[in-house]
Design brief:
Chain B: Pfam families: E1_dh (PF00676). The complex is a heterodimer. By secondary structure, chain A is of the alpha/beta class. Chain A is built from 15 helices and 14 strands. Helix content of chain B is 40%, strand content 7%. Classes of the chains: A alpha/beta, B alpha/beta.
Chain lengths: 395, 424
C-alpha cells in the first residue's frame, strides 16, 4: 500500500514539474520531438541550401528573425540578398515575388498573417494563379505564399480570419495547411519544390507545439505529396475531416482517454495534446463507444476527395470541422463532394462545424464561443450517431 | 512643346530637365532634390562616367550636339527600322478596329494609336533577354518586342494559334520567347511584376554569380496608374534595392474619361521620381527620336546597375480608351492638336527632310506592312478555334507536384522520390 502511495505521489509530483507543452524526448521509442516552428525553419533552411534560386521575402523575416521566429537564423546563414526584409508593402513585394518567379527564381513570400495577404490578393490570384493558364503554359510561377492563418488568441477581428476557403476556390493555386511537425516539414518542402503557386496556411498557435517525428521526416529529402490527406486515426463510426489546429481538437476527442492508459510510471505523456478543453467530454465519446475516423486534410486544394469519400463509405457519417466562416466554407465543399459521390452511403446528414458567422470578437469568452471547441465536435459526432445530446454548452 | 534635349545635358545632370514652355503644367522642370542615399551616388557616378555615356550612345553624335536638332541622332537603317515598327503598330491597331466594327473581334480591345513613339522609342533599344511588362494596352509593345503580328491577331480572335493559344486575349499577351511578361488588366499590377523581373536580374548577378546578367526591365503604364498604391510601393523598392528597371509612363492625359488633371493632386508625374530617389524625366512622347534618346540613357543607367529611372512620356491616344468607348469627354480641339503631332508623320517628315530616306522607301515600307497585316488576318481567320480538350489544360505547370522528371513521369510518382534532390 505504501508502494502504491509512493507511486502515486511520484506521479503527481512529476506532473507538477512537467511544462504545459512537452519538449521532452520520449524514452519509449526513437522518435524525436520537434516544434512546428523548428520544422518550418529546418524545411526552409534545407530548401534554401539545396537550391540557390530559393529566397525569402517578407516583413521582419531577416534581422527580426521572423515575426514568429520561423525564419530564425536564416539571414545570418544566407545573407541579406536571399533573406529580404521588405517595407510594409504587401501588394508591392508580393508582386515583386511573382515577377521574380515569372523569370525563374523561387521566392517564398511570408505574410505576417494571412489577413495582410488581402492587400496582395490581386497578385496572388491574378498574376500568380492565373498566369500559367493565361499564357498557355509559357509563364509558370514557382512561388510559395506562407504565413499564419486563422484565429490566434485575443487578436481581434482583423487578425483572425481563415482564408482557406477563399484561396481554395481559385483554380491555379495549390493550398496546403499542415497540422503537426511532420506535415509542416513535408508540405513546405513540397510547396517550395512545386512549380506552381502554393498558398501555405500555417497556424500561429501550433508554432510552439511539439510533435514526435521519425528519422525519415528529418531527412533533407523528405516530402509529402500534395493532394493527399492523411488518416490520423482510424475509426468506424463517424468521419471527422479537419485541417490545421482543428485536427488537434478532433484528435482530442479521442486521444485523451487512450493516452491516459498509455501514461507510464514517470508520468510522461507519450503523445502531445494541444489545447486544453474538455478532456472529460472526450472521454464521453469513447465511453459511448463512438470510434471516429479523423482525416487530416493537409491539402485544401486539390482536395483529396477520394480519401474522404472512401472514409465516408466506411463510416456512413461525416462531420467537417473548420475554423473559418461557415458560409461557402470548406465544409460546404466537402459536404457537396460527399453528397455527389457517396450519397447512398450516408446514414445521417453531413454536419459542418465552423467558426461563428461573426467577425472575431475580442473578449475571451466570446472568442471561445466563436471558434469550434472540442465539445462542439463531440456533440456533433453524437448527433451524427443519433445519440441525444444536451443543448450548446455555455462558456 | 518640349525642346530638343541632348545626351550631354543628361550626363551632366542626373535629373534631366526638359525645360519647356511655362504654360504647360506637365512640363514643370524638376530640380535635383538634395536627397540622401542613391541620389548623391548618382551625381558622383554620372559625372565620372560622362565620357562613357557618350561613347555608349552609339549613334551619330556630333560635337556641337547640345542645341542641334535630333535628326542626326540616327542612321538611315535605324530610321527605317523605327519607321517600320511604328507603321506596323499603327496598321495593326487600325486593322483591329476595322475587324471589331465588322464584329469579327470581341471582348475588350484597347488600341495604341498615337502612342507608337513610346513603344518604338524604348523597345527597339532592348535585347531579346530584356523584359517588358505592360497594362492591357499591350498589342504594340508586343509587336515591337518581336511577337509576330499573326500570333497576336490569332490571339485576339481567340484561335488556337494565338500566342497564348486563345486563352489570354487582347489584354493578356504573354511571350516567353520574347520576354514579354504581359498584358495585365489591373493597372498597376504589371509594375511589381516588372520590378520582380528586374530583381531577378540583380539576383542572378549577385547571388547566382552570373556576372554578365545585365537584363533590364521596362514597365509601361499610364497616367491613371500613377495614382495607384502599387506604383509608389515599387518606386520605393526599386530605388531602395537599385533595381535595373525603367518606369515608362505613357501619359496620354486621360484614364478612360477621367482627365489626369482632375485625378491627380500634383500632375507632373516625373516629379515623383526624385521623391523616391531616382531621376524623373519628362519627354515629348510624340517624337520618337527624343524618346529614343531618353530611353538610351535610362536603359544604359539600368544596365550599368545605377538604378531605376522614371520617364514620363507626354503622348496621346487618338482613339477612345477601348473600342467600346464613345470618347465623348475629350475636347475635339485637343484631339486635333495632337493629331497634328502624329509621331509617324513627324518621323516621316524628319527622314525626308534630312535625306535619310526617300518618299519611295517609306511607301515601300507602308506597302510591306500592309501585306504583313493582311497575311496575319488571313492566317488568323483560317486558324482553328481551340479544341474543347484545351479548357482544362495549363491550369498548373505540374498538376501533381514536384515537377516532371527527365523520363516524362511526375516525380512524385517515382518509387524512390524521397531520395531525389530539389527540383531544378
Amino acid at each position: 500500500m505504501l508502494a502504491i502511495a509512493r507511486q502515486r505521489m511520484l506521479g503527481q509530483s512529476f506532473k507538477k514539474i512537467l511544462p504545459a507543452v512537452s519538449v521532452l524526448r520520449s524514452y519509449s521509442s526513437a522518435a524525436k520531438q520537434i516544434t512546428v516552428r523548428e520544422a518550418l525553419n529546418s524545411a526552409l533552411d534545407e530548401e534554401m541550401s539545396a537550391d540557390p534560386k530559393v529566397f525569402l521575402m517578407g516583413e521582419e523575416v531577416g534581422e527580426y528573425q521572423g515575426a514568429y521566429k520561423i525564419t530564425k537564423g536564416l539571414l545570418e546563414k544566407y545573407g541579406p540578398e536571399r533573406v529580404l526584409d521588405t517595407p510594409i508593402t504587401e501588394a508591392g513585394f508580393t508582386g515583386i515575388g511573382v515577377g521574380a518567379a515569372y523569370c525563374g527564381l523561387k521566392p517564398v513570400v511570408e505574410f505576417m498573417t494571412f489577413n495582410f495577404s488581402m492587400q496582395a490578393i490581386d497578385h496572388i490570384i491574378n498574376s500568380a494563379a492565373k498566369s500559367n493558364y493565361m499564357s498557355a503554359g509559357q509563364i509558370s510561377v514557382p512561388i510559395v505564399f506562407r504565413g499564419p492563418n486563422g484565429a490566434a488568441a485575443g487578436v481581434g477581428a482583423q487578425h483572425s480570419q481563415c482564408y482557406a476557403a477563399w484561396y481554395a476556390s481559385c483554380p491555379g493555386l495549390k493550398v496546403l495547411s499542415p497540422y503537426n511537425s511532420e506535415d509542416a516539414r513535408g508540405l513546405l518542402k513540397a510547396a517550395i519544390r512545386d512549380p506552381d503557386p502554393v498558398v501555405f496556411l500555417e497556424n500561429e498557435l501550433l508554432y510552439g507545439e511539439s510533435f514526435p517525428v521519425s528519422d525519415e521526416v528529418l531527412d533533407s529529402s523528405f516530402c509529402l505529396p500534395i493532394g493527399k490527406a492523411k488518416i490520423e486515426r482510424e475509426g468506424k463510426d463517424v468521419t471527422i475531416t479537419a485541417f490545421s489546429k482543428m485536427v488537434g481538437y478532433a484528435l482530442k476527442c479521442l486521444s485523451t482517454s487512450m493516452s491516459n492508459a498509455k501514461q507510464n510510471l514517470s508520468g510522461e505523456k507519450l503523445e502531445d495534446e494541444p489545447g486544453d478543453s474538455g478532456s472529460h467530454a472526450a472521454e464521453m465519446l469513447e465511453k459511448d463507444g463512438i470510434y471516429a475516423e479523423v482525416i487530416n486534410l493537409r491539402s485544401i486544394r486539390p482536395l483529396d476527395r477520394s480519401t474522404i469519400n472512401a472514409s465516408v463509405r466506411k463510416t456512413n457519417r461525416l462531420i467537417t470541422v473548420e475554423e473559418g466562416f461557415p458560409q461557402h466554407g470548406l465544409g460546404a465543399e466537402i459536404c457537396a463532394s460527399v453528397v455527389e459521390e457517396s450519397f447512398s452511403y450516408l446514414d445521417a446528414p453531413v454536419e459542418r462545424i465552423a467558426g461563428a458567422d461573426v467577425p472575431m470578437p475580442y473578449a475571451a469568452n466570446l472568442e471561445r464561443m466563436a471558434v469550434p471547441q472540442v465539445e462542439d465536435i463531440v456533440r456533433a459526432a453524437k448527433r451524427a450517431c443519433y445519440r441525444s445530446v444536451p443543448l450548446a454548452a455555455t462558456a | 512643346m518640349a525642346t530638343a534635349f541632348s545626351p550631354s545635358k543628361f550626363a551632366a545632370q542626373p535629373f534631366p530637365l526638359n525645360t519647356t514652355s511655362q504654360n504647360n503644367p506637365l512640363t514643370i522642370p524638376t530640380t535635383a532634390s538634395p536627397f540622401l542615399g542613391s541620389t548623391r551616388k548618382l551625381i558622383r557616378l554620372s559625372s565620372s562616367s560622362n565620357l562613357n555615356l557618350r561613347r555608349r550612345s552609339g549613334t551619330v553624335v556630333k560635337e556641337n550636339k547640345s542645341q542641334s536638332t535630333p535628326n542626326l541622332l540616327i542612321t538611315k537603317e535605324e530610321g527605317l527600322e523605327l519607321y517600320e515598327d511604328m507603321v506596323l503598330g499603327r496598321a495593326f491597331e487600325d486593322k483591329c478596329a476595322q475587324m471589331y466594327y465588322d464584329r469579327k473581334m470581341f471582348g475588350f480591345v484597347h488600341l495604341y494609336n498615337g502612342q507608337e513613339a513610346v513603344s518604338t522609342g524604348f523597345i527597339k533599344l532592348l535585347k531579346q533577354q530584356d523584359f517588358i511588362v505592360c497594362t492591357y494596352r499591350d498589342h504594340v509593345q508586343a509587336l515591337s518586342k518581336g511577337v509576330s503580328a499573326r500570333a497576336i491577331l490569332s490571339e485576339l480572335l481567340g484561335k488556337a494559334t494565338g500566342c497564348c493559344r486563345g486563352q489570354g486575349g487582347s489584354m493578356h499577351i504573354f511571350s516567353r520567347e520574347h520576354n514579354m511578361l504581359g498584358g495585365f488588366a489591373f493597372i498597376g499590377e504589371g509594375i511589381p511584376i516588372g520590378t520582380g523581373a528586374a530583381f531577378r536580374s540583380k539576383y542572378k548577378r549577385k547571388v547566382l554569380k552570373e556576372a554578365d546578367c545585365d537584363h533590364v526591365t521596362l514597365a509601361f503604364f499610364g497616367d491613371g496608374t500613377c495614382n495607384n498604391g502599387q506604383f509608389y510601393e515599387c518606386l520605393n523598392m526599386a530605388a531602395l534595392w537599385k533595381l535595373p528597371i525603367v518606369f515608362v509612363v505613357e501619359n496620354n492625359l486621360w484614364a478612360i474619361g477621367m482627365s489626369h488633371l482632375r485625378a491627380t493632386s500634383v500632375p507632373p508625374i516625373h516629379k515623383k521620381g526624385p521623391a523616391f530617389g531616382m531621376p524623373g524625366v519628362h519627354v515629348d512622347g510624340m517624337d520618337v527620336l527624343k524618346v529614343r534618346e531618353v530611353a538610351k540613357e535610362a536603359i544604359g543607367r539600368a544596365r550599368r546597375a545605377e538604378g531605376p529611372t522614371l520617364v514620363e512620356c507626354e503622348t496621346y491616344r487618338f482613339r477612345g480608351h477601348s473600342l467600346a468607348d464613345p470618347d465623348k469627354l475629350r475636347d475635339p480641339a485637343e484631339k486635333a492638336h495632337y493629331a497634328a503631332r502624329d509621331p509617324i508623320t513627324a518621323l516621316k517628315k524628319c527622314l525626308i527632310d534630312n535625306s535619310l530616306a526617300s518618299e519611295a522607301d517609306l511607301k515601300a515600307i507602308d506597302k510591306k506592312i500592309d501585306e504583313v497585316v493582311e497575311e496575319a488576318v488571313e492566317f488568323a481567320e483560317e486558324s482553328p478555334v481551340p479544341p474543347k480538350s484545351q479548357l482544362h489544360e495549363n491550369v498548373f505547370a505540374d498538376p501533381k507536384g514536384f515537377g516532371i522528371g527527365p523520363d516524362g513521369r511526375y516525380r512524385c510518382e517515382e518509387p524512390k522520390f524521397a531520395e531525389g534532390t530539389a527540383l531544378d
